[in-house]
Specification:
It catalyses: Thiol-dependent hydrolysis of ester, thioester, amide, peptide and isopeptide bonds formed by the C-terminal Gly of ubiquitin (a 76-residue protein attached to proteins as an intracellular targeting signal). Belongs to the peptidase C19 family. Keywords: Hydrolase, Protease, Thiol protease, Ubl conjugation pathway. InterPro entries: Papain-like_cys_pep_sf (IPR038765), Peptidase_C19 (IPR050164), Peptidase_C19_UCH (IPR001394), USP (IPR028889), USP_CS (IPR018200). This protein has 382 residues and is α+β, with helices and mostly antiparallel strands. The chain has a domain at 2-182. It has helices spanning 2-12, 15-29, 59-69, 72-84, 90-93, 95-107, 122-130, 142-158, 171-177, 230-237, 252-255, 308-313, 365-370; strands at 38-39, 51-52, 114-115, 118-119, 188-196, 202-209, 212-215, 228-229, 241-247, 257-268, 272-278, 280-282, 288-290, 295-296, 300-302, 320-330, 337-346, 349-356, 359-363, 373-380. The structure holds zinc ion (ZN). Zinc ion (ZN) binds at residues 196, 198-199, 201, 248, 250-251, 258.
Length: 382
């Protein structure tokens, strides 16, 4: 699927599309020679992934891109969004989406023409800067970058007002961009249910998320070495809590403000689940520190206990996600390095890889399990 679409964009599409896409390709690889396979002196073996060049403190970008490229549901979605675009005008406001698509294809060894050991994400960075993001500041964060990229892709795909001035969009093209099924597979909804403890009145609100940012439990020196796990952190994050002084529509006239029970649940499940573990903390002296807590995880994650409809019905049927990638932060809060453990399919078989900027190698799953997760990427399998 991916290859066929890329071929469409590079070779067989309408002439205008091919010209625009080829231009993007030159910028990315710096080679003024279209139509030929771009190779390093020795073509990389097919069981290798491409690494990503560090453009100066960009390991947070590289680690996130490797993680995203390990999620087939996500890159197939990007691919299908671009497939729907048949007019060259869409290129102008889909430049980040196009750059991301190309980068993922290259690092996954799936690009029809670019076959390199290392690749740079300069074109993607430039496209984000054109959207107003500042990526040249000090050390940045993989979670922030994920949010920045998600927001931009969403804007490009769903918002007409991001179209460059002077480019007219015909009705048909605009309609295809705005299809309601264009939301990212990382898009889920948290259901926030409030129940008045005085009268039992219930209300529920849904808030969209692309990534669940999960806090660690309050640091307790007595339990400093307690082993945490992802299911436990989710349970704590999605546990019921009481909130006071809330006006109840049903009984406020009688009792004034009421105490409510607030329960967060997974209201709408995403196809791809991104979890961010909040490791940054502030000391009493106001200094930023990094929590080094061990957080265990497994290959499969069952979130059935946290699903809103399951909780309502009392039928906790399993909902399983399979691990695709782990982004790890090495070092301290204000410095350090991001690396990624990720899956890729080689000759029809899933294998794990370790990636650190340009360096990539195969990894055992034991190594993956021993890593210290900062972000976890899952895809739904049931
Ligand atoms: Zn009430």
């Amino acid at each position: 699927m991916l290859k066929s679409v890329l071929k469409h964009y590079w070779f067989t599409g309408a002439a205008t599309v091919a010209v625009v896409a080829s231009a993007a390709y030159f910028v990315a690889v710096g080679e003024p020679d279209s139509g030929k396979t771009v190779k390093n002196p020795k073509s990389k073996p097919k069981n290798k992934l491409s690494g990503l060049i560090n453009e100066g403190n960009t390991c947070f970008i590289n680690a996130t891109l490797q993680a995203l490229a390990s999620c087939p549901i996500f890159f197939n979605w990007i691919d299908s969004v671009l497939t729907r675009k048949t007019s060259d005008i869409t290129e102008h406001y889909l430049r980040t989406t196009c750059s991301l698509n190309m980068t993922m294809a290259v690092i996954n060894n799936q690009h029809p023409t670019i076959d390199v050991h290392t690749f740079n994400s300069r074109q993607l960075i430039q496209s984000l800067e054109k959207h107003g993001w500042n990526l040249k500041s000090e050390e940045q964060d993989a979670h922030e970058f994920f949010n920045m990229l998600s927001t931009t892709i969403d804007e490009e795909i769903n918002k007409n007002n991001k179209i460059s001035k002077g480019i007219s969009i015909d009705e048909q093209a605009t309609t295809s961009v705005c299809q309601p099924n264009s939301s990212s597979p990382f898009r889920g909804y948290l259901a926030s249910q409030l129940c008045c403890l005085s009268c039992g009145h219930k209300s529920v609100r849904y808030d969209a998320f692309e990534c669940l940012s999960i806090p660690l439990p309050k640091l307790d020196v007595r339990n400093a070495f307690t082993m945490l796990n992802v299911e436990g952190l989710l349970k704590q994050f999605l546990a019921a809590e009481t909130v006071g002084e809330v006006q109840c529509d049903s009984c406020s006239l009688k009792n004034g403000k009421s105490v409510f029970l607030k329960q967060l649940s997974l209201g709408k499940l995403p196809q791809c689940l991104c979890l961010h573990i909040q490791r940054c903390d502030w000391t009493n002296a106001g200094q930023l520190t990094k929590r080094q807590d061990l957080v265990r995880f497994s290959e499969e994650l069952n979130v059935g206990n946290f699903v809103y409809t399951n909780r309502l019905s009392g039928n906790f049927k399993p909902v399983t996600y399979r691990l695709r990638a782990v982004v790890e932060h090495l070092g301290m809060a204000d410095s350090g390095h991001f690396v990624t453990f990720r899956r890729n399919i080689v000759d029809g078989r899933t294998r794990w890889f370790y990636t650190s900027d340009t360096f990539t190698r195969t990894a055992t799953f034991d190594e993956v399990l021993k890593s210290s997760p900062y972000m976890l990427f899952y895809e739904r399998c049931t």
